[in-house]
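Box 3.1 A note on notation
Throughout this textbook, protein chains are presented in two layers. The first layer is the amino acid sequence; the second is a token string describing backbone geometry. Keep the layers aligned when reading.
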Amino acid sequence: MKNLKYLMLGVVFGLILTKSEAVSWFRIQEMFRFQSFHMYGIMATAVLVGLISIQLIKRNHLKTINGETIAIADKKYSHGTWIGGITFGVGWAITGACPGPLFAQLGSGVAAATVMILAALAGTWTYSALREKLPH
């Protein structure tokens, strides 16, 4: 019952993704073909909100709901970042979905999302099995 707020937040996020057409295979294909600004606008808005949020957290020393200090660690550059990014982008272009909206696609009736969810889980399992051997 204590996780109900997270479920509700996820439902609201899924509704926003669906209504903004961020889960639309056609919108994603338009983006990869440079035919529409729609998805780029959504991503730019998300980056801007994230940037502002992180700055507010750092400058105001905000804490979690439980009163814990929020620590945002600096990240070192790794070649694995661009290799993973290219792999992620190719998978996104082929399937028309990234992990975020998969459940929203499933909830809106896209049955093929089941296969993509299973593939995402298999990829996550594979990464965990190979993690020590991969560049970080």
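The chain has six helices and no strands. The radius of gyration is 17 Å.
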